[in-house]
Write a structure and sequence with these properties.
Length: 690
């Protein structure tokens, strides 16, 4: 259960009563009751309203809102009002606003306009969190804390003096002496040597490429800064109110900070899911991110925001046509959410987000969107048995921010240029073998291949326990950290299947290359040694020819992007390249290691290969491959020995699904099914075994 105060699937959204006159509040409550709303996120961007200047506080409006919702049995996911610092704070303290790489201080006038290491901003949030906690600690409406909002969404990569000072302290703690830092950073290269800590600047643009380890360490430092920023509030709320669960709502983009840092200081993972209705692959996009959120704590998460219909920030923002919002809401539940919430309750009249949809559109209650909201809100109680249920994934994909930060380089060697915020987070700004490789893109490619086979996948960090999985996949795991080799070897020895790909095991945690063949420490378990690699030009292809040892595969598959030149030491060659000077040398290998096997894929195979490869491996492991019509998704949640089968028809036409033997009850419609289940376009059934 997300919060003990609400033994239901949570249903509601971001509520901004401060944007509306008080007469509207009563109307809001009437409509919330109509839609069966049980929780609202409030006070997210209200720092300037609660604290109009340094010494004045104004809680009257919030007291009224809290009392009003409590009286109507609606609960608050209460934010601490820290996501939009007030203008007075930035005017009074010159460390509040972030500084760009070229030294320009970014101005106020939007939200999240603060440096994540600003002492004045941190003091402001500690104070506000404490005031909020003390004021509302005994309030009936308080059910969940919501710290800040979407860290890193609009926060800028900052290069101010406070960040630099913080970086120095972080480096001192990590390296102890400047000599050690010089050694680990490899500053002998291009004679970059630092004589003392004070000489170390933030990794700003210079004449050419920056120091790789310094750049990575700065990203690590900023990543940890997001976490320590969160702790400023978390520690206060936890101390004053140990029993109220705490969350912060994540974005779907994990590249700006390592989310696993938050793992032990988060009661509930929550996130904001905004797939584009214009993109036919949106359901995969959402499925991957739902899996990341579920796997972070290995328990149900919250869908904190989604759009009731269109957003306002894609180039073209199409509506969710009738039925799609309901389907995608159930998709979130199917992947482990115990809530359905939206941004936002009422579509804004003023401000930058006035073209964004709301649960109550500008048109008012007599609208298609509000009717669909009410339909879903009133149906959800029927699904309440799924609360707290698990998804038993037998397959995991390993994801690592350090590998991400050291691989992606869509701009080539843009090292000497000043990079804007998005670019900086995106790129490693280093010379690199190819701009065509994307870390997360590769991970997504593997995830989607399994998604297309309807296989649930957890997305886990490198230090997570592998023992509950049968198959662990580490696509493009560029950096191998201490402990990973041992974890993989022990997993495979005990019978696990491990799969990795090209450009894995190239560097250690300080960005030093592993000598003597890739994939560095994984050479033994893979039974191979990669001598060199050859990135292919845009559109370039090679062919994977399957050998006699690989009887389960069709004979040839196209491949692209990258070719490794591989020598086997113990592995069996399952496929060889057909073209280029390495024609006939391995591209795909299998190594028996103890009771398990390790597969190496030294290229980017086509989708046909991915399907055949995973079908074979999954079948061998006794993992069921459901037989479903195109466009139908199946996810299973289980609790107390009972399973709930979520069938979701993402297709545009009616679909007939062959059920496994037995009688099933649809917990939404109450209908009983045996043999065939028919799902209309965008139809949803949650079947429970009878
Ligand atoms: C994010 C933010 C919200 C809102 C929505 C709009 O998720 O958290 O405050 O801006 O985007 O889609």
């Amino acid at each position: 259960m997300i919060t003990p105060k609400i033994p239901k699937i949570i249903f509601g959204g971001d509520y901004f009563p401060e944007q509306w006159p008080q007469e509207t509040w009563k109307e809001d409550i009437r409509l919330m009751k109509q839609a069966n709303v049980n929780m609202v996120s409030i006070a997210i961007f209200t720092g300037a309203i609660i604290q109009p200047d340094e010494d004045t506080y104004n809680f009257d409006w919030l007291d009224k809102v809290m009392d009003l919702i409590a009286k109507n049995d609606i609960y608050a996911c209460l934010a601490t009002s820290t996501a939009a610092p007030p203008v007075w704070l930035a005017c009074k303290y010159d460390d509040v606003l972030p500084v760009t790489e070229s030294g320009q201080r970014i101005d106020y006038g939007s939200r999240q306009a603060y440096c994540i290491n600003s002492p004045s901003y941190r003091k402001f949030i500690r104070n506000l969190a404490e005031k909020m906690a003390v004021r509302y600690k005994n309030h009936k409406a308080l059910a969940l804390w919501h710290i800040n909002n979407e860290y890193a969404n609009k926060n800028q990569m900052c290069f101010c003096k406070n960040c630099e000072k913080g970086f120095h302290q972080w480096l001192k703690k990590k390296y102890g002496t400047i000599d050690r830092l010089n050694e680990v950073w490899g500053t002998v290269f291009w004679g970059e040597r630092y004589a003392c800590w004070e000489q170390i600047n933030t990794p700003k643009a210079s004449t050419g490429s920056r120091n790789s380890t310094k750049l990575l360490d700065y990203k690590r430092f900023l990543s940890e800064s997001f976490f320590t920023l969160y702790l400023e509030e978390y520690n206060i709320l936890r101390k004053i109110l140990p029993d109220i669960p705490i969350t912060t709502n994540f974005e779907g983009d994990w590249r700006k900070f390592d989310h696993s840092l938050f793992k032990d200081h988060l009661d509930v993972v929550s996130w904001n899911c905004y797939p584009d209705p214009a993109n036919p692959d949106s359901r995969k996009w959402a499925a991957l991110r739902h899996s990341m959120m579920r796997s972070l704590l290995g328990k149900p998460f919250m869908l904190m925001e989604q759009a009731p219909s269109q957003v306002d920030w894609y180039p073209v923002n199409i509506n969710k046509p009738p039925g799609l919002m309901r389907l995608w809401s159930y998709q979130a539940l199917a992947h482990g959410s115990d809530s359905i919430m939206y941004f936002q309750w009422r579509a804004s009249k003023k401000g930058a987000e006035r073209y964004h949809s709301g649960m109550i559109p500008h048109f008012g209650e007599d609208s298609r969107v509000f009717k669909e909201i009410c339909g879903l809100g009133n149906e959800l109680d029927k699904a309440k048995d799924i609360i707290g249920s698990d998804i038993d994934s037998k397959v995991a994909i390993v994801m690592d921010n350090d590998s991400w930060w050291t691989v992606d380089n869509p701009y080539g060697a843009a090292g000497s240029k000043s990079l804007d915020n998005e670019t900086f987070w995106n790129a490693n700004a280093q010379p690199f073998p190819t701009v065509l490789v994307s870390y997360f893109g590769e991970l997504e490619y593997y995830f989607n291949a399994l998604y297309d086979l309807n296989i649930p996948v957890d997305v886990i960090g490198v230090h997570y326990d592998f023992s509950k999985y049968k198959i662990v996949i580490a696509p493009l795991l560029h950096m191998i950290k201490p402990g990973f080799k041992e974890a993989v070897e022990s997993f495979v020895k005990k019978g696990g299947i491990f799969i990795t790909t090209y450009f894995t095991g190239i560097i250690d945690e300080s960005v030093g290359v592993y000598l003597g063949g890739y994939p560095g420490p994984l050479k033994d378990v893979m039974g191979i040694k990669v001598e060199e690699y050859n990135p292919l030009p845009p559109g370039g292809k090679n062919t994977m020819k399957m050998t006699a040892a690989s009887k389960d595969f069709k004979k040839n598959y196209d491949c692209s992007v990258w070719c490794d030149v591989i020598h086997t030491t113990n592995a069996k060659v399952l496929g060889t390249f057909v073209n280029d000077y390495y024609a006939g040398s391995p591209c795909f290998t299998e190594n028996q290691f103890g009771n398990g096997r390790a597969y190496y894929v030294g290229t980017r195979p086509n989708e046909d290969f991915m399907k055949d490869f995973f079908t074979k491996i999954l079948q061998e492991q006794g993992i069921d491959l459901p037989d479903l019509p195109q466009g139908v998704e199946l996810m299973t949640r289980s609790k107390n020995g009972r399973s709930y089968y979520f069938y979701l028809n993402h297709g545009e036409t009616e679909k007939k699904i062959k059920l496994l033997s037995g009688r099933y009850e649809d917990i939404l419609s109450g209908n009983t099914y045996e043999g065939i289940l028919t799902l209309a376009k965008y139809g949803v059934s949650i079947l429970r075994g009878k």
